[in-house]
Amino acid sequence: MKKTIFYVLLLIFITAAPFMFPAFRTQLATLWLMIVVSMTWDMTGGQMGYNSLGNIFFYGTGMYVAAIICIGLVHDVGIYNDASRSEIMKFTDTQYFVGAIVGIIGAGIFCAITAVIIGYVTFGLRGPYFAIGTLGVAIAAGELVANWEWVGGGQGIALPVYPGDLDNGKLFFYFLFAVSGVVLFIFLKWLYGTRFGAAVNAIRDDEEKAEAMGIHTLRYKLTMWALAAFFVGIVGGISAFQLIHFEPLETAYQTINLGIFMVVCVLLGGKGTLWGPIVGAILFHVIKEVTWNYLLGWQWVALGALIVVTVVYFQDGLMGWLMHKKPEWFGVRIEKKESVGEAS
Question: How far apart are CA 274 and CA 47, in angstroms?
Fold first, then answer.
């Protein structure tokens, strides 16, 4: 009953947040983006034990796929992205919304399929080799797209502006991100309690033993990564329309920024937990906003210090630390041993 009340109140707060803090709607939308990419990274890194540095590949690919679908439904993509064109290509309100929704969904599906294809190669690697291999995929994708003139090359893609009031546009994108995050949370809460979730955890604990028990490990790994890629592609597609203009290296395939941030969020909150990535994303986003606004020039030093403190003092993340210090908060009973004098 208490959990139900908590979730209802949380849902009410999520709905009311952009109206309670109208000046921070963009920051709140970005917070939801951080929550989603953190939870999806933990799906493979925390739950399955495969630490990827290339999940940003699905984010950037999602942006481009969503944009290409939206543009392609109305105009020729190559002509639209031609820097030398003089023709103004417009979108009606209906074309914008249909293109955005179809593009976002298409981005998720495309990224899921791509994850399966890439996974057949990368899941042959383990440990740091898997991390480096996935990072190489993301970097290579950014360079390839930057030299692909059909999708705008290095100049990127400029999408149509949200048709309507600017504040309504901020609300629109906030709720797109928020709905994605809530749906992902509900899905993962169910998934982690199923036999599939147990099998994925078995792969993390000891993959050889899991295979010996008859678990088709490759199938589970591909499925888990495809599910994660689907949601990353979704929020990547949403970001494309929110940002309006984006380019490959600094915005889409930003391995140094968002690609690292999602990992730090999970480490800060706690790997392999449902709430850890969420708590970590919230804390990291607040710290990032403060340092990027008030410590400009020193923000990367602050970020490095945060990573060092987390790794040295909170190796299990904040949630892991709390579970150790306050197990009763998580429903774990600790029976105190009676002293010899009391026992006699």
Answer: 9
